[in-house]
Amino acid sequence: MVAKTKIKRNSVVxxxxxxxxxxxxxxxxxxxxxNSYCPExxxxxxxxxxKKQVLYARKHVADMLKKAVRSxxxxxxxxxxxxxxxLEDQIEIYNRxxxxxxxxxxxxxxxxxxxxxxxxxxxxxxxxxxGHSTGGCIDLTVVGPDxxxxxxxxxxxxxxxxxxxxxxxxxxxxxxxxxxxxKILIGAMTQAGFTNYxxxxxxxxxxxxxxxxxxxxxxxxxxxxxxxxxxxxxxxxAPAKPKxx
Length: 245
Ligand SMILES: [Zn+2]
What we know:
The protein is α/β, with parallel strands linked by helices. The chain has a single domain, classed as Muramoyl-pentapeptide Carboxypeptidase, domain 2. It has nine helices and nine strands. It has helices at residues 16-19, 34-37, 59-70, 87-104, 110-120, 161-164, 176-192, 209-215, 229-237; strands at 23-24, 31-33, 42-43, 56-58, 77-82, 137-143, 195-196, 203-205, 219-220. The strands form three sheets. The chain has a five-stranded mixed β-sheet, with helices on both faces. A two-stranded parallel ribbon has the order 1-9. Helix 3 packs across helix 7 (176-192) and helix 4 (87-104) crosses helix 5 (110-120). The longest helix has 18 residues, at 87-104. The N and C termini lie far apart (54 Å). The mean pLDDT is 91. The structure holds zinc ion. Residues 82, 132, 137, 139, 203 line the site of zinc ion. Zinc ion binds at residues 82, 132, 137, 139, 203.
């Protein structure tokens, strides 16, 4: 029997000042390529470019994903759309998101834009590394027996500005179908030992500082992850960046 993970904090705001105080003692868990290590898991194509992705995570996290798949209803699968990101990737994603908020709120002060961006992307310039750079965070959803992604944002279309309004895991205004579908993901991931960032139904983690904060631990077990030279080469051969036009 594995002890259930006790969640102490469950908030759409995870204060950086508190998370920065969590000490990181990296346990050296190696990185594995999810595509080959977890054949039972689907790896989504990059939603911007439509290209195949090669994704990495810590080995223990990959094993937990295998466990999560086993607890899904028959015929259902997990599909991962983001996992490890280098610090450079994270900076690019942060800046892109910041620019998007700036376009939407022209004239808003820097502090406001930063707070808005921080809710969706971990800032890359604070003491604690972004969860995705530790190899402990996974962004994912569930695919049904018909091989289609379950609808998690009804009545809104996912990846549209309106669906941002229901990105919190227990958001108000969700259609019953989306609530039901989220429960499938929540059940599988929680049972496997992951904790969820309450501001994003798709973001789950283990081992990073935010995970430690959620369960009330003073130490995290994953700092910034390093890929082997071979893994790095392979990752670069399947770039996640959009092509320049
Ligand atoms: Zn994420």
